Amino acid sequence: MNGVRTQTLEAGTEFEARGPVVIGLEDTVRWAAASGDYTPFHFDPAAAADRGFRGPVAHGPWKSAVLRSLLDEWLGQSSTLVEFDARYLSADCVGDELTFGGVVSSVEAADDGSRRVRCDLWARRADGGQSVAATAVVVVDAQPGGGLPVDRLKAAVKLGEDAGSFVYRVDRNDILSFVDAIGGWSRADDDDTIAPTTFFAALDPVERRDLDLDAFLQRLPFPMRGGGNAFNEVDYVRPIREGDVITVTTRYTDVYEKKGSRGTLLFRVRTNELRDADGQLVATTRCGHVLTYDVPDPAATGEASA
Amino acid sequence: MSTTMPPARLEKGQELPTAVRFTTTAQLVRYAGAAHDFSGIHYDMEYAKERGFPTVIVHGFLKAAFLSELACAWGGAGSWLKSFAVRYEGIDVVGTPIVCRGRVTEVMPGNDQVALELWTERADGTRTTRATGILQLGEHRGADDRAGARRAGDHDDSGNDNHDHRETSD
Q: Do B51 and A224 touch (CB under 8 A)?
């Protein structure tokens, strides 16, 4: 397979053309069988001649399928086709030659760390005429070989802006099962059950994965070691109690990487604002989370052997 | 762990009673459910090993809960932590003893709040979690404490003279 290495993708990158490929009757029969399109002029020379064609005509979607399978080769099996649009510009008959190719028209970094690759694809006839003009958008995994995608992470978590608000109703049972899980004891205030200090953890949209803007961090091409919460802080205006309907608004305040003895540490710091049904502030929290990646340092390879 | 009695005395440097916690995988699963924290490093041994841990590890937040409960148990009925900040410095694997300790770092004027430092230790004394907090003592604490202070004053022969701190509104 002579695919383009995905890390070199940029606008203007040309894919290695395939062809010329001679359209065979077997191709049209197989496509008819696979697609259920048994319109006779695709495989019956007499039916094709009746319609004025030189021979059985290749199905348009077959030509698209060839282009899509080539995209897999060009961009890798892990890429995902999200948009495909084709126009069929000529009737190509069994025995005709087609060449398939394409070019990257743009590459954008998506919020989740992947890249959206927009391509113009084509199939050309032996006489140079265009048979198919197609556009495709393919999502390709995060760029391998580089460092941690800190800038993309910042964009993904909307650093400095409200990243999301979630509403949680705190029922008595939520508090009691939390108390049970921490081996604590239940407290009451005017007959209402009061939540333990760290109950704010149970109302954290990120811990709950209700807010999951950076799931791609789990799929980076670097081994992960260790990792977890680095710190948690809370300031309460009042305790959380049963019956509270709490709106939690999360904002990421800091994203940075740091070299550590066991790898590259990636920190994400977020604050949550917890407000009750009346809009009154109940608590603010600040949480820092760290992931540790084994990121090869290209500059270090020379030193390592010294 | 349960308590309703406020501490009989309040003074800087005073140590909280030590609590030793042992975790089980069942507790970690229970905590994962109650806190909606389903990171596999707390219950999936193979995944934890892949991530470089010797086995499944205790949620940092659970250790934080051990410490905040220690503080509130000591503070007695109605006490709650107005602020609480915890830093995780080392892991604790499931099943090993987690020694929870704390001490008073400041008694606030008015005697109804104390600043605490709290920490967890492994059996070998290594600190794995460090926390600070401001503990609001229960609403009835002022009266109770004055009574407690008098009691302590009456019977305390340790010779410390921190009692004046607490004799605020008499």
A: yes
